[in-house]
Each structure stands twice: as C-alpha cells, then as structure tokens.
Amino acid sequence: MSTGPLTDGDHHVHSTFSDDAVSTPAQNLAAAQVARLREIRMVDHVRVSTTYVPEFLSVVRALPRLEGLTVLTGVEAKILDASGAIDAPPEVLAALGTPAGPDRVLLADHQVPGPDGPWSPRATRERIDAGLAPADVVEMLVTATIRAMRAAGRAQLAHPFSILPKIGLKEDDVPDELLDALAQAAVDTGTTVEINEKWQCPGPRAADRWRAAGVQLVASTDAHDAADVGVYSWVRG
Ligand SMILES: [Zn+2]
Ligand SMILES: [Zn+2]
C-alpha cells in the first residue's frame, strides 16, 4: 500500500550549499521544527564536478537530533542525456545509501535529456518548430528518466514534468503508457516521486495513476529559503 503525499514531510529543501539558496541547514532544521514536520530531506544541487558533498553531509549529520523529526539527505542532479546519465560525481552516486554518501539522488528535468546531451528549453522549442514531433520529445524524456532511475538505484524524481511547460507542452501530452512505464520503474527501484509545491507538478492525473500503481509519493517544497520549508498550499489541494 502506498499513501501520500503526506504534508508532514518536506523531501526537497535547499541550503547555502546550493548557490541559489539563502538558508543554512541549521536554519532549515529549525524551520522544519516550527512547521512540525516529521521528515525533512536536505538536498543541494550538484554537477559531475562538484566537490562539496562530503562537507555538506558532515554539516547535516552534525545537526542536533530533534525528537520526532527525521533528517534525510540527497543531492539534486539533472538527467544529462537520453542514455539516462546523471550529472553528479560518480563517487557520490556509488555511495548512495551508505554511510559515506547521501540517501538518494534527486533526478531533475532541468533540461531535456537529448541523444547528444542536455537540450535547453529554447533549443528544444526550436527543434519542435523545425518539425521534431512533441511525442518523440516526451518519449525521450520519460525513457531517459527511467534509465536514470534504474542506473541510480536510490533515486527520487524531483518535480517530474516541470520541463514540459517550458517547452510548450503539457502533462496531458504524456500518454498513459509512458506514465505507467515510469510508475513500474519507480516501484521496481524503490524510487520516491515528489509532488512539488514550487513547480506545481505532477498534476492529479499522473499523481493519481502513480499512487494507484504503488508508487511512493512524497511532498516537497523545493524551498530555497527556510521560510518556505514545509509550507504547502497547492500540494494540499
Ligand atoms: Zn530542480
Ligand atoms: Zn531543487
């Protein structure tokens, strides 16, 4: 049985280890306590070349333990290409779920994973305008996501389908078969899937279908400021 997303958890919270976020892990922890969360996943952005992950993990693990609040860790990395390559240091991916590594890698659709590497939203729109079928773009995105989930082993899908509006498409452009293939891979690999407050995705059609398939859905704010930790309005609706 799976339920959720439960809004007493926030599974995607950034700290100052991400250059676009303003709060320290300690400030985020305090905010999680104020919001009466039971779980917080502290996550920061990485690329293949990132070196701060050991320091980030030691800072998070040195935080005071608060009763009733579980602190989880992660790194957020984009899916690089159609093969499902992940933009994270290989040693970080190899250490997922071990004492030396973060709990999970958050797989992000910040770009479209093309056959030759990441396509920006603008470059993708240009290809669609030039005749590339939107259905092929959607299939490439979902296939790459499934490959990345299977390669990672311990993943979480960050804001799934957040890229679609940026390339002029909608979640309704994703056929049921692809939603189901993604769900199957998530169940097979134990990948959690976010319902993301910041990006307001995925929508109810995908979320309901995934929940029915047994996918573990988790709520996230994608907070870049402690004031936003555990604060939900869209997700609750
Ligand atoms: Zn992201
Ligand atoms: Zn994020």
TrEMBL record:
One of its GO terms (cellular component) is cytosol. It comes from the Bacteria. Residues 9-81 form the Polymerase/histidinol phosphatase N-terminal domain. Residues 1-22 are annotated as: Disordered. GO terms for molecular function: phosphoric ester hydrolase activity; zinc ion binding. InterPro entries: PHP_phosphatase (IPR050243), Pol/His_phosphatase_N (IPR003141), Pol/histidinol_Pase-like (IPR016195). SMART domains: POLIIIAc (SM00481). This is Histidinol-phosphatase.
